[in-house]
Specification:
This is PAS domain-containing protein. The protein has five helices and seven strands, in the order E-E-H-H-H-E-E-H-H-E-E-E. About 45% of the residues lie in helices and about 20% in strands. By secondary structure, it is an alpha+beta fold. It folds into two domains: about 100 residues, no CATH class; about 100 residues, PAS domain (Beta-Lactamase). It is elongated, with a radius of gyration of 30 Å. Strands 4-3-7-6-5 form a five-stranded antiparallel β-sheet. The chain has a two-stranded antiparallel ribbon with strand order 1-2.
Length: about 230
Amino acid sequence: MAKSKKKKIHKKIDGQLLQMNKKFSNLKVKQKDKITGWVYEEYKKYVTEHDKTPDSLADAQIVEAVLDKINEAQIWIPDAEIYDYYRRKKPQLQKRLDNEKVIKFKSYVSFYKSIVDQDRASIVICNLNHEIIYMNPAAVISYAKRGGDKLVGRSLLDCHNPESRDKIQQVVDWFAVDESHNIVYTFHNEKQNKDVYMVALRDDGKLIGYYEKHEYRNAETMKQYELW
């Protein structure tokens, strides 16, 4: 038995005959695409400005902003249909926004890594368990006799005597006390004319690890802007 088509309900408004029970699915593809874009645009704008997901009041503000754009574009669709569409799509909007943030962050990683890798001084990065999780090329060369990149995954404490181990832990404990505790000068190597530091690594203020930073004090021998 064939399904009966839903009867269209029309009403004349401002000289136009409008379908009062029109659904989002009844819109043209280009109209759907425009509205979908506007909904995400307004959702993203709210979350970016307020750094939180919208509550019911904010939901209404977002939909109203979308409705204004729909009216400007002279697209006819009942307001209730857009409210319903937004409620159904809201979880997907947040998921899309989260995915965008992850992609954006990943695009930055190569920049951060390059800063570390291009440093001519050794940089050894450790987590809070003192496990070496990364060594820049300069550090790999500097510690070649101790194993070079094979040190990654091992404990930094294994490379120090008991007294140094205690000092390293004291510094990490000091880092953990306050977010302003971020750098400690540990020693000066007279032979290589360099200072060595321990620097805290944080994620939104939370201590996640530290790195050993070497800074040489020798005068630069490279000529200014020497590009050849």
